[in-house]
Amino acid sequence: xxxxxxxxxxxxxxxxxxxxxxxxxxxxxxxxxxxxxxxxxxxxxxxxxxxxxxxxxxxxxxxxxxxxxxxxxxxxxxxxxxxxxxxxxxxxxxxxxxxxxxxxxxxxxxxxxxxxxxxxxxxxxxxxxxxxxxxxxxxxxxxxxxxxxxxxxxxxxxxxxxxxxxxxxxxxxxxxxxxxxxxxxxxxxxxxxxxxxxxxxxxxxxxxxxxxxxxxxxxxxxxx
Length: 224
Ligand SMILES: [Zn+2]
Ligand SMILES: [Zn+2]
What we know:
By secondary structure, the chain is an alpha/beta fold. It has one domain (8-222): Rossmann fold (3-Layer(aba) Sandwich). It contains 9 helices and 6 strands. The radius of gyration is 17 Å and the shape is globular. The structure holds zinc ion (2 copies). One zinc ion binds next to α2.
């Protein structure tokens, strides 16, 4: 029987080398988010203390961490995962998140994906964050709790909202959580890319209202 690789031969999304989704050279060249950064939003920041934006805003999220800066090869990898049906790359990408979790010991007992708009889910056929969560949980042995967050109001796609403030308003209370599995738990909330952080924040609010003790966002990459 022909394996999946026969239909989708692995090819590095960065340089085209065969046999890898991300070859060792391209992996080594990825731009990691490294300290100093804001302890809350995780954005690179010279002082290493809480940034002005975080000081101004209320927070249900205890913090956000991202493995990479959203640029170059990782941007292309995420693009392939989301828009070109390259689901198989999720295991390679989730490895980075799982390794980050073990190296940085973020408090987490369960792992939850940010849900996709139902319309988009129908169109795409899968939620890329759920794919990442399954792989992360496979590697870390933490339990995945999928489908505990639901979108309760239709927010416009984030790309259409221009300012950070607009993005925040756009997704405020856009999520609800009615699921006892999050009660009393420390949650790791997973998404592929952090843009303004408003989506993660809104999800964290819903999780906390349902009784989650803490919520840390973990994204593969962040826009800065
Ligand atoms: Zn490469
Ligand atoms: Zn900050």
